[in-house]
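Protocol step 4 of 6.
Sequence for Iron-sulfur cluster assembly ATPase protein SufC (Caenispirillum salinarum AK4) entered exactly as in the expression construct, tag removed. Do not edit the line below.
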Amino acid sequence: MKNMAPLIEIKDLHASVDGKEIIKGLSLTINAGEVHALMGPNGAGKSTLSAVVAGREGYEVTGGQVLLNGKDIADMEADERAVAGIFLAFQYPVEIPGVGTTTFLKAAINARRRARGEGEIEPMEFLKLLRAKQKELDIPDEMIKRPVNMGYSGGEKKRAETLQMSMLEPAFCILDETDSGLDIDALKVVSDGVNAMRSPDRGFLVITHYQRLLNYIVPDYVHVFAGGRIVKSGGKELALELEEKGYAEFTEQAA
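Step 5 output, structure tokens:
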């Protein structure tokens, strides 16, 4: 059951990188409870969109708005957006030497709790939560004893990131080509983790090149992104059409 409240509203967004306009008037509303897929060719600006919404440095918003639960997030730093409930799963998760995975997860959870005026999580409560999520995502102890993403395979990095997302329970999750480089087994583990998080109070933006991921994470809506804007929207059948025909007609349309 979706609650149909606008969770994320992107209004006529324009954004540039190094002075070059990449996003050219993009509008998109994602309601709580919905999963939207954004598909498009390389260089269309899909990852730029995810970075802009998450607040990464180096991206300049030159017009438009991004609202989270009705609040303009333009002046919020990346960490403030994360605390407010925005989670970005990277295409290439970064390694953080010297920071243990459990330490990182506990610090992230406590940052969210402090922002909500709550006390820090009790050690036993944290351990119980971690063990439950590890079991769900088939993540062995050996993995979480390492520093964040250090020595992980590509699939392990994506599973570890799904663990982070599951532990933090964000309101809005952006998956930026999270299927990149995954074999079928890893893809299924990550997809199962995402599907377990679908709820009436949470929204997802799934960014991908390929329809394959959408066999596992079935979207409510699919959007074609080309030339810095959305050029077509539809249901999940649109992803099948793209798989069959490619993006040529849309890149020509956007040119």
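Step 6, annotate. The longest helix spans residues 101-115.
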